User: Fold this.
Amino acid sequence: MLEKKTKIYWLFILPGCIFLAVFMLIPLFTLIMQTFFNEAGSFSLTGYLSLLESTYFKQVFERSIRLSLISTLACAVLGFPTAYYISKYSKNKGMLMALAVFPMFTSPVIRSFSWMVILGKKGFVNKLLVDIGLVDKPLSLLYNEFSMVVGFIQLFLPLMILSLIGIMDNISEDLNLAAGNLGASKAKTFRYVVLPLSIPGLVTGSVLVFTGCLTAYTTPQLLGGTDTRVLATMIYQQAMSLGDWTQASVVAVIMIVVTMLVSSGINAVSRKLNPTL
Amino acid sequence: MALLELQKITAGYDNNVILKDLDFQVEKGELVSLLGSSGCGKTTTLRLIAGFSSPMDGKFIFNGQDYTRVPLNKRNFGFVFQSYALFPHMTVFDNVAFGLKMRKLPQDQIKKEVMEMLETVDLKGFENRFPKEMSGGQRQRVALARALVIKPDLLLLDEPLSNLDAKLRVKMRVEIRRLQQKFGFTAIYVTHDQEECFAISDKVAIMNHGVIEQMDTPSAIYNHPKTEFIAHFVGFENFLDLKKSETAGEYVAVDGSKITVAEPKEGDSFRACIRPEDIQIIPEGSQGVNPIQGEIAVSTFLGKRHQYNVRTAVGELEVSADQESVYQVGDKVTLSLAPNKIILL
Assistant:
């Protein structure tokens, strides 16, 4: 009787599974397979080899990883205190959480355009810097790696904050009191109790932010310049501008592999910091 | 002088006052229990002493020093939480060693003291386990070891046994008492379990609505409650109003019947109480001390004993009788109230 019931429940996930299989798994598999064959249809690794030899790809690859890591780190540093405050000290938690996720209600396109207004030559930041005499002429804050990182942080910080709050809410206040009672200062309580116990949230947040940054297209396209291409924009360039679908596919596969490697890397580091995970 | 003294402590949050002008003293080496139902302020008192919260008003003197504003990590008090509050990401060893690490003791001394303490609480061989790999009783002992290893000036226990099953609870309370007597530390123990509290404590402070109604030895509280609340709490079910008569030691109940009391008090009118087992049922009309006429209203079989609710002119009285003679509802009986068991409040 019970067995029959559990079998029937499998039907519930069937529509989702079919959808994913038809529109994701099969295309993805075809895409991956394509990259291992040349135009003549025989097995070859030329797609990968030629790409790995190209200095341009190496530059783009290195930039993608670097900017994603910087943005992830920045989100962690900015998001941690914010999440900690919202979770433990705020009286108006719902309101603050709504504010934290508020940027997600607008599209990345609009947000990127807003940054153009703020960071442009005649933008708010440059005007302020010139007015208070910190610089003589406006800085180029736009269409470079700086503006891209700023865009990424604003785009993905809410994900980090939400992941952290989810975990921090489950840290019992008694643990902080216990640490204090045993002689730990506030700083040491943070170092030995709050930080290690928040690591699961930090991991989820970091994986989300990192993969988000690595795969984001609009933000680097709008806020980056022609000499600051990343993997996502490179795929577009290869496929749409150059018509080289094979090369684009190879880049896409590499992107998937990198995302998976970095995610498991972050997991490994976190397990070292908190062995009970 | 008392080791610990709370002077006119008022505490609470926002507009909700939980403790009002509370005075409380503990002597060195004593185990004092704070007993009361939930919401009576016992945990608030304990957390205040630990430094988890500060009072709105009043003073906390410890060992002759004003501790009211001393931060919690500078107090050197051990605290055993109801939830144990073991650090889930640390092994048993690291949990117990935490307080010593914060005190910056040398590594080898930490190791020695932690291992000794684990042996004392019978957890040798468990040092590399994580809390989630242990049973409730074992976690409880880790929590105890963690609080004791720092050699606290005061040990605070917040309902430490409430998450254990009945058998383990009895075992652990003997264990706590043994450790307390072995190390001779001063302890404050919060509980809502009367039996547990009487078994373990040198003194018991019964709290009600943010005040201590009575603080005394367990036997004094059990035999000589001072207020109606306490009397109720320790099993006095029958209350009657008495007025003084001309004869010394004799009082008059509301219906005019004369009641002799073994321990008379100064004053004119009293609320008196007596336990159900201290009232005897004698056949109607027979002679006895402090006789009161009545009629059985309810009869309840309790196994070893029989409980009767008897309707009388002084109100309904609860009587617990042995099985020798059984009465039916409606039977006319005479009750005899033992004079040495009647307590004047």
Notes: Residues 253 and 269 of chain A are 25 Å apart (CA to CA).
